[in-house]
């Protein structure tokens, strides 16, 4: 649900901003965006008590009382290869998303000669497809790294097909939606992989530190994407940018598999505990 809300927000934001700007100017659109953020902040502040997980608080307190050894160093998680692989996964997949988010309409317009309306509709189809994939992926997330790899492999294949430039214009929206579906389906499984990477060595109390570090790959990827690919598009290389999306998604596939090989699923941990007892 968290990921679904994010994807729907990505899809609605351009319509919201463009609609306000066309009706009342960009100043009002900017104010509207600020009011959305202020509303969210106010709601979270007033309802902050509902965000407290009593079960988690109790488990952490019990663990702290029961510890007989000194706690691990706050930055000990940086020695984990699974954490670094998770960061790299977020980095490359977000660079790929950044290409589509920033330049997708322009790329589709130049490669297929479609109007801005059609090319922007392709980006919307991608975002809505991603939201749908995330719903399905949430029910299949326990399948772990293989589901993530399969979904990203499917998305990379859709990107290669688009980059070929050989598809009819009518296929653009379905292909973009299919690519988004693959990326979205990988989302919940990806988050569970990060959770396992956080807890496999450092326990539940490390959630905040590991999530903060790993998810900073999102912001880093968003920042790097325009710097890396803006010059490429300025030079008129639009199809290579789509191939780059496929390569980056395929890289995420391999990172996900490597993370999965370094952390254990709850089922395997339970089986190991049974054997040891």
Describe this structure in words.
- The protein has 277 residues and is mainly alpha-helical.
- It folds into two domains: 1-50, no CATH class; 78-262, MFS general substrate transporter like domains (Growth Hormone, Chain: A).
- Helices cover 82% and strands 0% of the residues.
- The longest helix has 32 residues, at 81-112.
- The radius of gyration is 21 Å and the shape is globular.
- It starts with a helix and ends with a helix.
- Mean pLDDT is 80; it is low at 66-70 and 265-277.
What's the CATH C level of the largest domain?
A: Mainly Alpha
CATH architecture of the largest domain: Up-down Bundle
> What percentage of residues falls in helices of 4 or more residues?
over 70%
- Rg estimate, integer Å: 21 Å
CATH superfamily of the largest domain: MFS general substrate transporter like domains
Structural shape: globular
Care to give the gist of this entry?
With 277 residues, the chain is mostly helical. Helices cover 82% and strands 0% of the residues.
Question: Keyphrases for this structure?
Answer:
globular, mainly alpha, Growth Hormone, Chain: A, 277 residues, disordered C terminus
